[in-house]
Amino acid sequence: MMASNIKMENSLAFARIPPWVKAKLRPIAVEKIQQVHDWVETECIPAERIYKIQLQADRWKTPAIIHELRKKAKAQGLFNLFLPNYFEESPGLTNLEYSCCAEIMGRVYWAAQTMNCHAPETGNIELLAKYCTPEQKRRWLHPLMNGDMSSAYSMTEPDVASSDATNIGIKMEITDKEVIINGRKLYGNCQYNDEMQLFILMGCSDPKNRSPWNRHTTLVVPAKTTGLKQVRNLTIMGYDWAPEGHGEYIYENVRVPLENIILGPGRAFEIAQGRLGPGRIHHCMRLIGQAERAFELALVRCIEPLKKPRGKLIGEFDSNIERIADMRMTIDGMRLIVLNAADTMDLQGNKAGRYAIAQSKIMVPNALLKVIDEAMQMYGGQGLTQHTPLPEFWTYARFVRVADGPDSAHRHQVGRDQMKTATGFRKRAEEYTKRYQELCKKWGLEPEEFWGIV
């Protein structure tokens, strides 16, 4: 353990990790965090321009450099690090330990992909590991974990308010042999990329069920199934996000066998809640990594000798010194929120940690949007162009406010849960008043009304 501590003290990989987290890192985690740091710094960041050049040659084909890096990462034991250690397929990290890795991965948008730790693969693999039968795992989980194909999660719909998933309406007719699917979906990764080979689909199979939480079913639909058609790719804030993209789909009499149902008919909500917690944390940690890159770019700009408005370096202006301070403190604060959520999941489980998860999902994207925006501002006109990765960082941060559920829905859930505690606080206030009245009587004073309670 001492060797690990010495390594942490002398490594940039651990420079931003709070002491209380370092104290919980096991030797295996220390090793993996260092490996991921070295991987991103030496293999991914220098290759950012290579990736873009190769992608321009074919927008819907994964660049060759990604395939090369994936082979190297797998050989180094850097695959599937996200899968928590309570799964038999896990490499062995806790949610807290992996969060430290995920932040580093976020420094390059596609770095997580080189380690098979990218969305939606992380959520889909965890779903399949948690809920599938051994045969289903053989067919879908193992190829995904091996990096032989990619997948999509298909939940959002264009015709309903999908933030309330009870509204999901794509029709699933379950017969004695198969499931027949009809309807429309948004956001599943693009069929244009041949590596995308299956959808994990949530649909309505029992619309007359008295419980809205038992009307839906989750199943696997192979991407090339007859009747499944991609209408177009959806741009996000003007970006096509190739080579994965976000498709709009029509299901017209799509037929899949009964054995493609996961867990059982009517259990989609159970599955969805089990899937979403860790994925939200992964998004937020990667976003912190992107914010760190934005902060570093801002620092570089501050001391750029060619940029001297009114004869001063940009970083010599008091307003920019204060801006840098605010950016630094915001990133550090958001990191604590996400690490707390990850630790809560480890200690109490995803369901018990839903407040901490929601807190991360609400606060982190909003706060880090501001950080990235400030970095763009310090670059002036260049900050809005492809001269830096800042516009793409900002767009991803804005997207995360909606991904896995809009933050307004999470705020409502948090507020609703807190309102349930109001009765208990009311009772406590009444006890305070009762004791106050007793003290008034003791000291010969006339009680006054306060807090609306006499």
Radius of gyration: 25 Å
Count all strands and give the number: 7
Give the CA-based shape.
globular
In whole angstroms, the N-to-C terminal distance is 59 Å
Description:
It is built from 15 helices and 7 strands. The protein has 454 residues and is of the alpha+beta class. It folds into 4 domains: 2-146, Orthogonal Bundle (Butyryl-Coa Dehydrogenase, subunit A, domain 1); 150-262, Butyryl-CoA Dehydrogenase, subunit A, domain 2 (Beta Barrel); 270-419, Butyryl-CoA Dehydrogenase, subunit A, domain 3 (Up-down Bundle); 423-454, no CATH class. The strands form 2 sheets. It has a 4-stranded antiparallel sheet, with no helix packed on it. A 3-stranded mixed sheet has the order 1-4-5. A hairpin with a 3-residue loop joins strand 2 (171-174) and strand 3. Helix 3 (27-44) runs parallel beside helix 6 (95-105), helix 10 (268-302) packs antiparallel against helix 11 (318-348) and helix 10 (268-302) packs parallel to helix 12 (354-378). The longest helix is centred in the middle third of the chain and has 35 residues, at 268-302. The N and C termini lie far apart (59 Å). The relative contact order is 0.09.
